[in-house]
Amino acid sequence: MSEASLDILGIGNAIVDVLARAEEGFLAARGLTKGAMALIDAAAAEALYAAMGPGIESSGGSAANTCAVAAGLGARVGFLGKVAADALGEVFAHDIRAAGVHFPTPPLRGGAPTARCLILVTPDGQRTMNTYLGACVAFGEADVDPAEVARARVLYLEGYLFDPPAAQAAFRAAARIAHAAGRQVALTLSDPFCVARHRAAFRAFIREQTDILFANEHEILSLYETDDFTAAMERVRQEVAIACLTRSEKGSVILAGGETHHIAAVPTRVVDTTGAGDAYAAGFLAAYTRGLSLPEAGRWGSLCAAEVISHFGARPQQDLRALVGA
Questions:
Q1: Interval 13-29: pLDDT, tens
Q2: Which of 8, 20, 100, 113 could be joined to 55 by an S-S link, Cβ 3.0–4.6 Å?
Q3: What is the rounded CA–CA span in Å between residue 116 and residue 109?
Q4: How far apart (Å, rounded) are the C-alpha atoms in residues 113 and 117?
Q5: Residue 263 belongs to what domain range?
Q6: Each residue of 299-314: pLDDT tens digit?
Q7: Into how many domains does the chain fold?
Q8: What is the largest CA-CA distance in the chain?
């Protein structure tokens, strides 16, 4: 196996995030489920965007956020995802490259516009996401560059990619390439509603293709259709080499074979939960690919998650290397 020249290669939906504050009544008036991610069409996206208050726009999407945070920790990171040749596509590409992430995927020309996620943050810090996938749906196997996949120590896949069928095929192809090159495959479950939509496919992919799994408590319970966290822990322990299960203020649990590591949450004032799980995965993977211990990787993950939820927006505002003591 050749030496890896990337630590992490993320594959996910290339989305421009638009974050805005909203009151509970704004959600209720539009029938939006608080804390959920809903897929919407272009017309609904335009209407909601017009009704939202002032927003912050940046490159987003779950895996892209993880890649940006990991790059901020000094990891060598690449990202594959599809944007359109339009203004928002340029925002995404510039923003993620400025974060230190290698982004080689060519833009889509003549098709759907760049995806956007309209994120409404209520006063309690919860985020409600409405996503128009746009050009993301065009991401397919042809966009999976085998050389890019093979040179990354860990391939990191975003669970939201199970929604567009062409992207799901790309996801599976990338995992095969990674394993053929002797690399590891990491998966994040992304969202309990996404898990519910694709439960059987997720279970098969986890069992057959996944080395490292990231999930929050709601996602892992949904995956195994149980309300018993301990039972879900024991199920996933049998299926992957490493499972990182986050539990908000209860911290996280890292499972590896017979080992169980309990990682404390880092106390912080919650302003906006957008990107917490993405940042945790970034911290963990940046430490893990450096060869640090699982508890230390969990500590990095917790510190990054706490930093991200302490302010508005999914990207860190502090010097992450100083934060973790790297």
A1: 999 988 899 999 999 99
A2: 20
A3: 17
A4: 13
A5: 6-324
A6: 999 999 999 887 766 6
A7: 1
A8: 56
